[in-house]
Amino acid sequence: MSEINDPTVVGHRTPRIDGEDKLTGRATYTVDWHATGMLYGYPVSATIAHGTLEALELDEARAMPGVVDILHHRHFPRLHRSPNSMKHGDQVSEVRLPFEDERIYYHGQYIALVVAETFEQARAAAFCVRARYRHEDDAKPGLLASGAEGETVGHYSRGDPDTAFASAEVTHDATYSIAAESHVPLEPHVTLAQWRDGEQRLIVHESTQGVFYERNALARIFDMPVERVEVISHYIGSGFGNKLFMWPHAVATVAAARMTGRPVKTVLPRQQDMMNTGHRPASCQRIRLAAERDGQLMAIHHDSTSETSLIDRHVDGCGGATPSAYDCANVATRQRLLAVNHGTPCPMRAPGEVSGIFALECAIDELALKLDMDPLALRLRNYADHDPQRDLPWSSKQLDVCLKSAAERFGWAARDSRIGAMREGDEIIGYGMASATWFAGRQHCEARVEIRADGSLLAACGTQDIGTGTYTIVAQTVAELTGVPVASIDVRLGETSLPAGPLSGGSMTTATVLPAVAAATRDALDALKEVAIGPGSHFAGYKRASLEVKEGALIAEEKRCGFAEILARHRLGSVSGQGSAAPGGERREYSFRSFGAHFVEVRWDPGISRLRVARVVSSIDVGRAVNPLAARNQVEGAITMGIGMGLLERLEYDPRDARMINANLADYRMPVHADMPEVDVELLDYPDFRFNEFGARGIGEIGLTGIAPAIANAVYHATGKRIRDLPITIEALLD
Ligand code: MOS
């Protein structure tokens, strides 16, 4: 593997190549696609959370203007379930097919899909569908309301944490909880389904983080050869995990298109987007820590329960980061799962670990207080300079640099550790900090690069850009290796007809896609060189290896010839290169993680009961940031999301009947501009060449880990109130 040591484009701040199209509205999001003769679907949701659908009264809705069909349990094709296999690429978010039986498992579950000539007609008729239910009053209301433990689905242990805990000098034992949260992507879920050639071919536009997964799942569900199913997702208004895998609205829409013989588009209204397309499940975690007087950690117990629905088993593994977080000989984690009458949860940005790190990093802060140690010093005292879980060296770990650098920029040393001792005017100032970490993974990827006679280049890969800047980093990669400016590189993504690309998930896209694009670029350059050294060509008689590539030209000795000129002499429209890349054996030799540190200042004004985050200083170690402009943007977005998690966001379910109370943007509180603090993000630059030639590990999720605990720790410092339940509400501080 050739390391790219002094790149000129990769690693440099690069404005998004799709920025202008997005700004001017030229970028086609799924909702922007219109098909001839297109109908609109509008789902009807159950108004109970637990019971049976006894009857649907459809006469009124059917008589409404423009209504073409209404799909429901008794009027729906027999379809197959998707095998739901991650390995075989047909995972779905909810295995149960729409309208599969008459049971109601959660509030909002689809009971019908109205199909009409216009969106307004479909919506109007949907509100006229009447349902009669047999309501059952023993709904499972949710983990936080019930306090039930659930069944064990996973555990880890090393050493003897029980004995270590029993004999330790200082211990901490507390329970932390996190409310369910909604992803709230700016763009709700949308599906446009078109059958062509007499039901021989299916074309689906979907706002998805994984076009290939949706294609494969649709092929299984509709019993189609995968080659005849195409899924397209050119622009996505973010996903955060709830667009990783297909939801039932897409299946219902594809079925509706087949039943009506016309294209059908379904745009989920915000309420259904929140009820029916997943959420971060609520979790409850007990952390037990034991330490020596000098701060050496002796034991960590991390017991978690997360919720799932009654129809799927989504595990939000909270303890994932714990075994490798600290240098501690005795560690045990246990994950439990509790099925409740809520919609099926799904991954949400740094799934599981972001919840687990909240509990662990709050507990570390509480332990530091008991030890009368600075929480930063306690973290450095127990620094894991190799991975204690896998007993392997880290590929590159600069957490200590992150902690020290962020502390310095924040002014941590000036902190008066006494509770409520720092004041300014009416406000009490609190300082808090926490570590951040997220795994670094890679997947298999293929790509194609074309060098074209008009002087432009094309890079193509089936992965999609969910708003994180994938178009731009692909162009940067090609630019880096060819010397052609980013502006002359076209990038095509988000189609299953393109070379197989990965899911946009797990912060793995950058590290996965770039090596494949680089391989394809080199292959295309080789193809061009073959042409260039051929008889009658510019470099006839030269050896391929003697040709250098610089600024869009081939060079040998004094001779220089532009790509387009070489192609023109042979009347070639283009040459093309293929490339693929996959992780190798490096995972057996090293552990790969990204790291970070967040320092937070909160201000509590007791006179008017106002709590706000005033300042966040973060240092992030993700190897090399391929595009620091977009990378910083990811961390800033994650910090915003973390403020929501810490102070505002909570999906509320009625404890009596498990109905979702606040599935709308008026009642579900999220940070707005007025909530935003001063944010200072530093991206360290320690390229991780053990991971890939670009040294890049990925950045989408790590920024969210550690924000909520840093806030909670700061709130304690300001108020003396240790709030272990997220979100931290004003009410909790008034108690
Ligand atoms: Mo992320 S939760 O893998 O979209």
Mean pLDDT value: 97
Instruction: Determine the N-to-C terminus distance.
Output: 59 Å
| SSE-based structural type | alpha+beta
Q: Poorly predicted ranges (pLDDT <50, ≥5 residues)?
A: none
The amount of beta strand, in percent, is 25-35%
How many distinct beta strands? Answer: 28
Largest sheet properties: 7 strands, mixed
Strand order of the largest sheet: 3-5-1-12-9-10-11
Number of helices: 18
**Helical content class:** 25-40%
**Distinct small molecules:** dioxothiomolybdenum(VI) ion
Shape: globular
SSE map:
Blueprint: H1 19-24, E1 39-45, E2 51-57, H2 59-62, E3 67-72, E4 103-104, E5 110-116, H3 119-126, E6 130-135, H4 143-146, E7 151-158, H5 161-166, E8 170-178, E9 190-196, E10 201-206, H6 211-221, E11 229-232, H7 248-260, E12 264-267, H8 270-276, E13 283-291, E14 297-309, E15 331-340, H9 353-371, H10 375-381, H11 399-410, E16 422-424, E17 427-439, E18 445-452, E19 457-460, H12 470-482, E20 489-492, H13 509-533, E21 548-550, E22 553-556, E23 559-562, H14 563-569, E24 574-581, H15 586-589, E25 593-605, E26 610-621, H16 628-648, E27 678-683, H17 707-719, E28 725-726, H18 730-734
Parallel strand pairs: 1-12, 8-28, 10-11, 14-15, 19-20, 26-27
Antiparallel strand pairs: 1-5, 2-4, 2-6, 3-5, 7-15, 8-13, 9-10, 9-12, 13-14, 16-17, 17-25, 18-19, 18-24, 21-22, 22-23, 25-26
Helix pairs in contact: 9-17, 12-13, 16-17
The chain binds dioxothiomolybdenum(VI) ion.
Dioxothiomolybdenum(VI) ion is lined by residues 209, 239-241, 244, 347-349, 351, 505-506.
